[in-house]
Amino acid sequence: MNSWSSEGFISREHEEQRLTKAKKALNRFFKQQSKSKSKIKYVEESFSIPKDNIIVRGRWDRVDEQNGKAFIIDYKTSEVKDQKDADQKARKNDQLTLYALAWVEKFKQLPKRVELYFIESGLIGSTRRDAKDIAKVWDKILKVGEGIRKAKFAATPNQRACSYCPYSEICPASVV
Length: 176
Hints:
The chain has 176 residues and is an alpha+beta fold. The protein has helices spanning 12-35, 83-92, 94-107, 131-149, 159-164; strands spanning 39-51, 54-66, 69-76, 113-118, 124-127. Helix content is 41%, strand content 25%. A hairpin with a 5-residue loop joins strand 4 (113-118) and strand 5. It is flat.
């Protein structure tokens, strides 16, 4: 692993554990990919959606093509318990819906599937998006855009977000 960095680990033991897990994940990934019938169409491909006076920019981690159909894949370093959990996270993931929206805007057709690839476990949460899902996420984007234009930035506290927020100690809405 020529590009491995020893920075940021709690201890040497922690680093060794993470390196072992990383090697296992890479080996699993390469084995899975060698069996894949899909063709890689894009990797880290940027997109821009100019629509309704808003421009949304993003990047697909990866898009595969199989039988002329697109499969949009987003890689995740977070972990899942099992396949059911992976599929549930994919179903609830607005980011995947945004990626499907970008695909529709660019290619005028829905992707066949949108997927979360959980790197450490190798589990893939897979789901579909339809026009209704895309309309809902676009409505959310419009509301966020409106809030930004009106400079409305209400706090949305939760345990996870607040624990990482640099302002949690002085924020009146903090839950930590």
